[in-house]
Amino acid sequence: MNILFAASELSPYAKTGGLGDVSAALPAALRARGHSVSVVLPYYRSARQLLENVTATDLSITVPMGAVPHTARIHTAVTDRGVRLYLVEKEEYYDRSNLYGTATGDYSDNASRFIFFSKVVVELGKYIRPVPQILHLNDWQTGLVPAIVRAQRLPYRTVFTIHNLAFQGSFWAFDFDLTNLPGEYFSPPGVEFYGRLNLMKAGINLAHQVTTVSPRYSREIQTLEFGCGLDGVLRENAHKLSGIMNGADYTKWNPATDEYLAQNFSTRALAGKEACKKALLSAFKLPAGDGPVLGMVSRLANQKGFDLVTSLMDELIAQDVRVIILGSGDSFYEDYFREFARKHPGKVGIKIAFSETLAHEIVAGSDFLLMPSVFEPCGLTQLYAMANGTPPIVHETGGLADSVENYNEHTGQGTGFKFAPYETNALRKAVQRALAVYADKPKLEALRLAAMSKRFSWDGAAAGYERVYEKAMTP
Ligand code: ADP
Hints:
binds adenosine-5'-diphosphate; 475 residues; globular; Rossmann fold
């Protein structure tokens, strides 16, 4: 099949989270299965800095934004996985320090930035060869594409993937003018939601197929608790909704070859993991010792369960436990952890940053990964942790529930520790269960090996998307 994959993130050139990893890995996996796949991305400043061999084409695309025409210049490059990449250059929109906003809030022109991007994606499809059959859209930033395809009666089939329902691209009604869609689209079966323009809803309503990134999350988002207001819309569209678990990129997250690690290790030779732990403790200026290390690599956001973590911190460090956290985001949590680390030297390591190196060091060098997310569409860090023999401690939700097998104290089976409901006491018990296994070295080693043997392949995920594309092509 011929597929054009449009996304607002692409690792390692432009990434804030899991979407970037998916945009890098899934097109490559589809290509390896014999499909023709191109990716289209806004030409952000970070992509300018990180991409090599970018070629300017003579293609420029002009689209109306309300009454005003705007033009993008198209550049091409090839990603580090060998996938053809189209870059949408419009400096006033994309040549900025961040993708979506700064610490003080989202960029105020995000509606314009991504409505423009969506329009250019549709036009680009008319120029590239082979002509795309499928436009694969991702999250609200590309949510308008299916509406444009329908309004213009274009022959493309559209697949819309929800990576996180909590971010919806909801804008005031006046921004509807920027879409240049016929007025009837500003209605509940179209792009309107409670008097506002909602680009996530637009994608869900108007795409031929809708997917999300784990089977469990595809069911959860149809409930009041997890639907972020759109549960009714998702129930109405349930006939075209499915969940496909993301894969993990084991070329990047393999402790046997990972160049970021102090020492490599594998299921056959685990000793290097201890060296990674030592190096990690030293990198965070924490004393070496026998006690367990709990690691976190995460956006500092309520979604990631930090209210439970903060409520347990005093108890954790009262035991022989060290906690290491890498993340950035919500200034409340940034301040909290900085202050906590200052008050408890030698017990807590905190780094407010986005660092690929430290992420690998923590995922490999910790004894357990903490990931108590309130909700989690898929989650990738727990997959990377398992590959590194670092059993995750997770809330039983979304992709965490689908990917981690709860440890069974009687049979010794499992790959991590799950807890429910979402309460401090339930997390406390899961941590205690993990610490009990830590104290029993043969059991700990068996658990690590079981976690390391789990595989979440992108090839398997790509096969799932193939079936969705086939459904989308069936009128
Ligand atoms: P989300 O997309 O909700 O942020 P995921 O677990 O799906 O969560 O993906 C997060 C990705 O971002 C993972 O690849 C993780 O390693 C990475 N990541 C998150 N925070 C940081 C950080 N501070 N530094 C480096 N990588 C990070």
